[in-house]
Structure of Delta-aminolevulinic acid dehydratase:
Amino acid sequence: MQSMAASITNAPSAVNCPSYVGLRAPQRTFNLCVPQHATKSFPPRLFVVRASDSEFEAAVVAGKVPSAPPVPPKPAAPVGTPVVPSLPLHRRPRRNRKSPALRSAFQETSISPANFVYPLFIHEGEEDTPIGAMPGCYRLGWRHGLVQEVAKARDVGVNSIVLFPKIPDALKSPTGDEAYNENGLVPRTIRLLKDKYPDLVIYTDVALDPYSSDGHDGIVREDGVIMNDETVHQLCKQAVAQAQAGADVVSPSDMMDGRVGALRAALDAEGFQHVSIMSYTAKYASSFYGPFREALDSNPRFGDKKTYQMNPANYREALTEMREDESEGADILLVKPGLPYLDIIRLLRDNSPLPIAAYQVSGEYAMIKAAGALKMIDEEKVMMESLMCLRRAGADILLTYSALQAARCLCGEKR
């Protein structure tokens, strides 16, 4: 192969020397062997030699420092601002809040769609019926509307739901036997959802109020007393029927004494050791439940629920309920309502190693929606702040009717 010797003298003269402070283009000769045919195929190239790191360092050491933008001027204070000496503070917490990047870096509590459990109302009809007191919520047709709503939730990362059924009045009875009908609305719905979405986490409600002609969570004696042990017997059959259908977590919300231990024994005896129990550990006799009872048409026919739900004035009593539920085999402890009971969430968080759930109930949801509709608040910001507060108090999972809307906000959607 023929080749020619190409001699390039002082090739680095192409370097813009002024940009390399204190440097001179070195005088060197480069001898390159270039194939003859290459000279015919390619245009001549410019070879640039750059200074080494050591040469830059030497220039800086010699005092020839490259130029950089000037120090920005100190921002001026408004006219009339008093001139005062700086406070002698060793620690100024605002330093860690001065920019979005720092605030994000030091944020102690986070929230994601995985933290949400989406409560969904179902009924036997085909149409989705709006719930007046809960804007944006519906009694969903179990065959179609429910499946579509679950699909929307899964699209934004919410893969846990809890089911609440609206039962026809004709199927209600004083003993709530429809609660454990293996082909009832809830078992049918669970089977449908598990067939469609096998990895969907399904929580169920264990209580008699949707099935009771009296509207109470338990069997009512003729003198108005809610019967505890007899109710627990019915709840065990209800939980087993739900587990057979494919429920992942059964959630006794009745507040009967001893029901967690009885449910655990009943589930284990039927081979459902893998089914978890989320106990409504601290469920208060709250006035925030009103819209929910409209949704399920489950208002008590008489009286109230104060003999089994907790007194809103009580704090230490939650510890008693917590210890009982832990000893009986609960897997998750729930506080209901949520935002008005942040102190109870923190109490359980500080005293139990178990996961803590908080239920942002229908009244909380409705208040935010109503104030947002009246433009009294920024609905989206208040919604997200309220959920963050539940997490900050110590809740691992949040049952909220805002689950889909909040997840969309977290995913950056605005619809």
